[in-house]
Amino acid sequence: MSGSGDGNSLHERILADIGARIVSGDWPPGHRIPFEHELTEQYGCSRMTVNKALTQLARAGLIDRRKRAGSFVARPRSQAAVLEIHDIRAEVEALGQPYRYQRITHGTRTATAPHDTALGFAPSAPLLALTCLHWAGEAPFCLEERLISLDAVPEARHETFESLSPGPWLLSHVPWSSAEHAIRAMVADRGAARLLAVEAGTACLVIERRTWTGDMPVTHVCLTYPGANHTVVARFTPQG
Predict the structure, then answer these.
(1) What's the pLDDT tens digit per position in 80-105?
(2) DSSP letters for 110-175
(3) Quick check: pTM over 0.70?
(4) Structural domains of the chain ordered from first start
């Protein structure tokens, strides 16, 4: 039987192996973890070592342990932590950098299927399309690509957004009732790379946000940050 030092290393190996299979999706939610005696045989260790690893995985929320039934990959409690809607200017100034805003494009069009309707806009709905750039000092900080529903916010049709970015304007003019964030990684294409002053293919962090007032979509915005220069932090509390 393994000594205490080997037990510790095997405990870490079991944690890493099972955790990797869960995070990679190889073992999806609901998948049954091998029984303790099966893991004991597989790793050639004591049942105490296996139990310690499974207990730690359960405390981390990765598995559910059910008496007599065994252990299973846990189902997600929530899709993502809720993020507040921050003003990009405040983000830049919090870094101690001077902020500058630049409107790149501005125009109206109608929603076209399937892309716009997939974002929640009704077919042929009038939209205001904007491309904006936010600067921190001498460097581009964030590329903003936004659609605003002119059915939900008709007064936006008369705004040029040359000196004021659309985010703060919308927050002060439209009472939104719900919002959705999606966070993903991407590489900058040539257009985004040119505006952000990075090389094409640079890793970027993208935050997509949709907001509604009641059941009516207000806006969809895609915020692209050079990945090496930005971190998203969400603060949340455990659910009961």
Answers:
(1) 334 566 678 888 887 788 999 999 99
(2) E--TTHHHHTTPPTT-EEEEEEEEEEETTEEEEEEEEEEETTT-GGGGG---SSS-HHHHHHHH--
(3) no
(4) 4-73 (1.10.10.10), 88-229 (3.40.1410.10)
